[in-house]
Structure formats: C-alpha cells, structure tokens
# Entry
Amino acid sequence: MAVYDTECLDQVARTMEILKGKWTVQILCALLAGPVRLSQLRRIIPSASKKALTANLRSLEKSELISRQDLSDSVLHVRYEIADAAREPFAALVG
# Structure
C-alpha cells in the first residue's frame, strides 16, 4: 500500500480551494505584470462584474496571495499587488 504525505495533500487541497474562484486565475495573471487598481482590473477582465472582482480580491487578500495598498487619505484609491510569496509559484504554474 502506498503511503501519502498527508501534509502535502492538505496543501494541494487548500491551494485548489483558493484557485477555484471563477476570476481568481485571471486576477493573479493580471497582477503578475505589476500592481493594478480595481478600475484597471475591470478593463483587463471586462466580463467580470465589479462585485465579483471585489469578492475575489478580498478572498485572495485574506489568503495572503495578494496585498492591498491604500494610496490616498482623502479619496479611496487602492492598488492590488501579488504577494512575493505567491509570485514565483504562480508564475511557474501558468508557465
């Protein structure tokens, strides 16, 4: 009987759970090119609604795959960037 590394299997399962979002892979691919604002992301992925993009961005931020940076104190300007820890592994996945 084969012995499986359950920790590895758990990590793969967690990764798949994160990446299953409809727009998650597209968002991460867009962020590989550099930081973007939500309005730019909406132009890059025009078929995704603002609500869907926002929900996916929040999920990715919670998973620490991306970071959110507030750019201004007076007006809400936010920029999203892929986290350093996620950049290399994700780039390798998408080739």
The chain has one domain: 6-94. Residues 6-94 form a domain with the Arc Repressor Mutant, subunit A fold (CATH 1.10.10.10). The chain has a mean pLDDT of 85. The helical segments are 6-19, 24-32, 38-44, 50-62, 84-94.
